[in-house]
Amino acid sequence: MPSFQSFFERYTESSAPFMHRMLEEYGSAKPFSGMTIAHNVPLTQTTLLKIACLKASGAEVTVTNPSFIKESPVALEVLASEGIQYRPLHNLNGTFDFLLDCGAELIDSCHATQGIVELTRTGALRYEQWQDSKVPVVSVDDTRLKSLETCLGTGEGVYRAICELSQQPVDQKNILIFGFGKVGTGIAYYFSQKTSNITVVDMLPERLSLIESRGYQAVSAELPQQVKSAIKNADIIVTATGIKDLLSHSYEHDWFRGKILANAGAEDEFGFKFSDTDVLAAKKPVNFVLQEPTLMPFLDPIFYAHNLAIEDALNDTTSGFRPLNKADDISIVETWAEYHGWTVEQLNAIF
């Protein structure tokens, strides 16, 4: 029977140094002893390391899974063997000391007495506008370190998935990316290791300038003829705007025939003009068809920060929304870079 320990053996300290350190520290200090925590993070096998650290901290953890992804059957088996309660999202309610949330999906059904920690941009926006908060709401998304996952981790996963699913070499292919936020930036970076032919479409003037400064071709979304030309010249087209149905509302389906198409957003950005068979992974976020959508070295610091933010909320009990404190944010990025052979300057050049 697999256990938390077996997954720490699978993901060794070389790939998950933050989780290994947290497990040792929390197992010794028991910083959250007696606390109750509702944990809503995609329940994959990698997430088991994060939950194991919370168990080691002395907390009573109730695990659920966000609505946008199916939970791992193996992870459910491990939780049962470790005595961790799992409840489907639609059955989870009640009062907890802390809510560790993803997409603000616990905001209406659960109550926190000491604090809330949010993982995503979607959830952060909702919590920031929430008027009823009586506790600290700490955002891990509003940090530098989140780019390790959303820029590098997702970018690498999307690149890996397109290579696997298309079964075609991408060397010197013409790549067209819609959107140059964190995800689009990472996708462009990983494809740039194989081809210099990268074009990015965006609406914002400051992003168009940034695209050009990175050595990519920038096309304004407000110039449809230039976008049409970029589409027709592309071999691989990836969406990363976060806007549902964007391509169906904006462009002709025929322009995309014969291209490799992939969606990197949570929404179906290709939309109603495109069938599931037109787009890799049936229009779902393409990296989520992989057994590991995001590799552990990119998840490790985010898992660490999401748990660590409980300490932030305990140290500063001011109610209302705020990002994780800057000292922890900077420290985690610098430590991650040292662990994995990057420099901070290299990271700054990407995100």
TrEMBL record:
Q: Which SUPFAM superfamilies match?
A: Formate/glycerate dehydrogenase catalytic domain-like (SSF52283), NAD(P)-binding Rossmann-fold domains (SSF51735)
| Alphabetically ordered keywords of this record | NAD, NADP, One-carbon metabolism
Give a single Pfam family match: Shikimate_DH
Which cofactors are required for activity?
NAD(+)
User: What domain of life does the UniProt record list for this protein's source?
Assistant: Bacteria
* InterPro entries for this protein: Adenosylhomocyst_ase-like_sf, Adenosylhomocysteinase-like, Ado_hCys_hydrolase_NAD-bd, NAD(P)-bd_dom_sf, Shikm_DH/Glu-tRNA_Rdtase
Q: Which residues form the S-adenosyl-L-homocysteine hydrolase NAD binding domain?
A: 150-313
Signal peptide range equals none
Q: Name the family.
A: Belongs to the adenosylhomocysteinase family.
Q: What's the protein name?
A: NAD(P)-dependent oxidoreductase
> What is the species of this protein?
Kangiella taiwanensis
